[in-house]
Fold:
Amino acid sequence: MLPAKATPCTAIINEVKYSKDERYAIIHFKHPIPTPMPKLAPNVKAYIEKFAGKPVSPIKIKPNDINQFVVINDEAEDQKEGTVQAPFEKAEIYWDLPLCEQGVEIIDTPGLEENIARTIVTKSYLNQADAIVFVLDCNALCSESEKESIQEDVQSAGHDYAIFVCNRINQIKDKDKDELKSRAYKMLQDKTQLGREGVVFIDAETAKDSKAANDMDKYAQTGMPEFEEQLSKVLVNKRGNIKLAQPAKQLESA
Structure:
């Protein structure tokens, strides 16, 4: 439902919520609208301009139009500047996603440490989250900046039940997979109360493509079913612990 690229592409906060009957998105705008703005679709620019400096009302859009609002503007000479000047605050995306049916909301944020402006957006949102899914790349597992983020932004904020998703496991040679997994467990299992179960390995691209093609046999080989199961367990069985962990950590610090 959201754009996916090999390079970072999430420019704003995306809140995925449950909708039984209709798939759509609500785009919220900053106020005041920053200037200069990056290159926008003509209809989007015209919509903003008609408010003439007044608060821009949220707009309802179709799912196929999401890319116009949530994707990083690659044409900007400086991606940081392109993000700083984006006129969009967040996107609420309503979808018939089973995981969200019981009131769960999935928040897709810009990545950490890749860009200063997008890092600030993400860090400002972390304290509002009940659970954290921290995505890493198996090709460069746990850089120093990622270790620092896990310590400062995840553990220190009281996210004791984080799930560490190691993506692109399919790009690791078969003879090296066991060694990589062993290294990942050693580095990450002590960073979550879930232990080894909180470290999962997936091939997200194949999972996305096979699910779109309804090839569930292929999907079953991507590691995504195991991740979905673990996430469901955390959200259902650990919800009480999670709700108490952050205020308890803050009280301890005080």
